[in-house]
Amino acid sequence: MTIMVGGFMGIGTPSRLVEALLESGVRDLTLIANDTAFVDTGIGPLIVNGRVRKVIASHIGTNPETGRRMISGEMDVVLVPQGTLIEQIRCGGAGLGGFLTPTGVGTVVEEGKQTLTLDGKTWLLERPLRADLALIRAHRCDTLGNLTYQLSARNFNPLIALAADITLVEPDELVETGELQPDHIVTPGAVIDHIIVSQESK
């Protein structure tokens, strides 16, 4: 199973949903996220407890267990430049076939990828990313699933919400429909499949 998880170094990560995933006993996950956070934060506990077979991320340096498992061969790690990663996710959500970027040309990032030359410049074709399941976090959510975010906790969450077959949201606060200002809504409820309210939610 491929799962995308929102967050940036644990900020904006749906921690209760990650805990529930850990408690479910699921294994051999392919995990797509900006980073692997820390051993005890964000998606880190999934890696520490051996639930992940493959990680696609832009940064792993703050979680030494990710590096250890990569070096030992216990887990595959695909490092992707951050801008490329989020654009792959955006393309997956938009139904696009991919995009062209000069980032990574002439480096290990280019290995195994199709290149094109346009107007004398070399570009990499980066393919879209999608997941079976997306786990995101929002600040406020109404009963129809319309979402708002708070400050930097917004990060990857809105785009990840669009790039999976099923999207679960963990809101900080659940409100009645009509309580959110329409121009404050970032993610429409039409793309949210399940609202998971934790005991910590208001």
UniProtKB/TrEMBL annotation:
<dbReference type="InterPro" id="IPR037171">
    <property type="entry name" value="NagB/RpiA_transferase-like"/>
</dbReference>
<keyword id="KW-0808">Transferase</keyword>
<dbReference type="InterPro" id="IPR004165">
    <property type="entry name" value="CoA_trans_fam_I"/>
</dbReference>
<protein>
    <submittedName>
        <fullName>Acetate CoA-transferase subunit alpha</fullName>
        <ecNumber>2.8.3.8</ecNumber>
    </submittedName>
</protein>
<dbReference type="Pfam" id="PF01144">
    <property type="entry name" value="CoA_trans"/>
</dbReference>
<dbReference type="InterPro" id="IPR012792">
    <property type="entry name" value="3-oxoacid_CoA-transf_A"/>
</dbReference>
<dbReference type="GO" id="GO:0008775">
    <property type="term" value="F:acetate CoA-transferase activity"/>
</dbReference>
